[in-house]
Write a structure and sequence with these properties.
By secondary structure, the chain is mainly β. It contains 2 helices and 18 strands. The chain has helices at about 1-30, 175, and strands at about 40, 45-50, 55-60, 70-80, 85-90, 95-100, 105-110, 120-130, 135-140, 150-155, 160-170, 185-195, 200, 220-225, 230-235, 245-255, 260-270, 275-290. The strands form 3 sheets. Strands 11-12-13-14-15-16-17-18 form an 8-stranded antiparallel beta barrel. β15 and β16 form a beta hairpin. It is elongated.
Length: about 290
């Protein structure tokens, strides 16, 4: 008798489990996304130093299938940064468009470097408010919170920090070394500082890459802001230049923010008689913010 009851019990349990499995499988099969699709900021935060000179792209994307019509999205602007003083729009303010058959629209900002040696930060807060066509929604999740707002942080930078285009002018070293007189220009020279007093300049060796056999390197040196528009290059040696000594002076033009440096390069050469000879050469450089 107990055996019959056990068989009935096992059969009943198996039947119930079968119903559960079938129900789950059917529910999974029938579960389809019914929308709505939405638009959102690709990034919720971005941070740049105010000395960054290139246009900055902030993306808004359609988190769904591409449409055969353009998508127009409206947004508001708030935050502590001041338009026209800390940044400027290089796209239509308040509206961004995702073209037909594409997934991304772009908002473009340009930072204004008003460096004043006060190291603080400002924010530009962009908030999506509406979208056309109305088959789409703004943001995802509870009340569309996800991706609806984007905070752009502008970090203050030191007075001379940033990216520069540099020009090496002809100097006395030209005749001394028998080099054909010619100036040289290069972009992407980086000047940076941690304390707004001592600055490091990289990739400064404009047009000198092969003169002393240090091709394909980008040596650095430091200079000091004296606080009166004059600059000092303290005595220093550069491992990249084989221990040669660098020193010099310079100035800063507050009108065009241009930096002029007279770099004195002291190097030891072995002459034809096999004796070491000390040679000091002055290299004039001018650096213009990009």
């Amino acid at each position: 008798m107990m055996t019959i009851y056990k068989k009935l019990l096992v059969g009943l349990v198996a039947l119930l489990l079968g119903w559960v499995v079938v129900a789950c499988e059917k529910g999974d099969i029938d579960r389809t996304f019914e929308g709505p699709y939405f638009v959102r900021f690709t990034d919720t935060t971005l941070t740049y130093k105010e000395s960054y000179s290139q246009p900055i792209t902030i993306r808004v994307h359609n988190a769904g299938p591409q449409l055969n019509e353009a998508i127009t999205i409206n947004y508001t602007v708030s935050g502590t940064a001041r338009e026209g003083k800390d940044y400027a729009f290089q796209s239509t303010k308040g509206t961004v468009t995702i073209p037909a058959k594409q997934s991304f629209g772009e908002i473009k900002l340009k930072l204004i470097n008003n460096a004043n040696n006060i190291l603080e930060s400002q924010t530009v807060v962009l908030t999506l408010t509406s979208v056309t066509p109305n088959s789409l929604k703004v943001g995802f999740g509870n009340e569309g919170a996800l991706g609806k707002r984007m905070t752009f942080i502008i970090q203050d930078d030191c007075l001379f920090s940033g990216s520069y285009a540099g020009v090496r002018q002809n100097g006395a070293y030209v005749n001394l070394l028998g080099i054909t007189p010619a100036s040289a220009t290069v972009s992407g020279i980086d000047i940076s500082s941690l304390d707004c007093k001592t600055y490091t300049i990289a990739n400064w060796n404009i047009g000198l890459e092969d003169i002393f056999g240090f091709s394909a390197i980008k040596p650095k040196f430091t200079f000091i802001d004296n606080g009166d528009n004059s600059l000092t290059i303290p005595v220093q040696s550069s491992p990249d230049l084989g221990g040669d000594t660098l020193t010099g002076s310079g100035s800063w033009n507050p009108q065009n923010r241009q930096i002029s440096l007279n770099l004195r390069w002291k190097s030891v050469f072995t002459n034809s008689a096999g004796k070491d000879t000390t040679l000091t050469i002055t290299f004039p450089f001018t650096y213009t913010p990009q």
